[in-house]
Write a structure and sequence with these properties.
four-stranded antiparallel beta sheet, globular, 312 residues, single chain, 6 helices
Length: 312
């Protein structure tokens, strides 16, 4: 496989290569190049190895999409955390135990996760006119299909990302203040970017894959790259979101499900100790919709339990 740094000068067609990290990590990069002027859309998947829908969607997209149907080019990174995928490692890069989505920006020559993050930032951010990072609920998560857009980037970056998010085939659009993820750091660097979540429980279905592909086709149309832009009139934008984490190691018992509407004060879940004594009771701070929650019975202090969105 050839090393890839910049294929902008290449002609039309499909190409495969890998992104050099300066270490043993293999990061496959696939290009679909139209040979016609247009934007560069970077689509990533596999940041977390057990989030399968986006990984499978990019495998299908690369085989399905005809270069002649495009303007500009796609750069697809279907498996950023290959060892995590093959080892079934929840949430981390196995070589260093770090969450890849929490190490941006990363130094050169760091640990495995940091090398991957640095390579993506150094080689791909400068080429991207837009970036879409595909995720899906991990083995311990139940999640409603949604998209995060960067709420604290430069105003023009936030506006472009928010407009594009409305074309994706998911039900909820969530403003995010995160800064240390692949997509959120790209936005801080001036690249309009989104993080989409489709899938849950470490599972995937063909229907979910087609849902992601339909969204990408709509995004291509929105960006003027071909396809048909289909604004999602049913998509709802949250005014804000709240995230709750475990205050102690314990047993987590959610009382709600993703996509469920809840009322202010409603019980969302209880964290208890081995003997059943309550350690933490989560209630809704306002009327809202459950975006995701942890399904694992055992959780450790500081780990995510639930997210709730407030809508107009």
């Amino acid at each position: 496989m050839q090393m890839i740094v910049d294929w902008k000068a290449a002609g039309p067609g499909r190409r495969q290569g890998r992104l050099d990290t300066g270490g043993p990590e293999e990061i496959p990069v696939w290009e679909v190049h139209s040979g016609r002027p247009g934007p560069t859309l970077v689509v990533t998947a596999g940041v977390h190895g057990c989030e399968y829908v986006g990984i499978q969607a990019l495998r299908v997209l690369y085989r399905r999409l005809e270069p002649a149907a495009l303007r500009g080019r796609l750069l697809l990174l279907p498996l950023l955390n290959a060892r995590g995928f093959y080892a079934g490692a929840k949430g981390v890069v196995p070589e260093d135990g770090k969450n890849l989505n929490r190490v941006f920006p990363a130094p050169a020559g760091g640990t495995a996760a940091e090398r991957i993050a640095h390579a993506v930032e150094a080689a791909l951010y400068p080429q991207a006119d837009f970036l879409l990072d595909l995720h899906g609920g991990e083995v311990n998560e139940a999640m409603a299909p949604l998209v995060f857009f960067p709420a604290q980037a430069a105003p023009e970056v936030t506006a472009r990302a928010r407009a594009a998010a409305a074309c994706l085939a998911v039900g909820y659009r969530i403003p995010s203040t995160a800064r240390d993820g692949l997509y959120s750091w790209a936005a801080q660097r001036g690249v309009p970017a989104l993080l989409q979540e489709v899938g849950y429980g470490g599972l995937w279905t063909r229907e979910q894959v087609e849902q992601v592909l339909a969204g990408i086709d709509s995004l291509l149309g929105h960006l003027g790259m071909g396809g048909e832009a289909r604004p999602n009139a049913a998509q709802r934008e949250a005014l804000e979101a709240c995230y709750r984490t475990a205050e102690a190691d314990g047993f987590w018992e959610p009382q709600v499900r993703p996509g469920q509407a809840v009322a202010e004060g409603q019980l969302l879940g209880v964290l208890s100790d081995l003997e059943g004594r309550p350690l933490q009771r989560l209630t809704a701070p306002w009327d809202g919709v459950v975006l995701y929650h942890t399904v694992g019975l055992g959780v450790e202090a500081g780990s995510p339990l639930l997210a709730l969105g407030r809508f107009a």
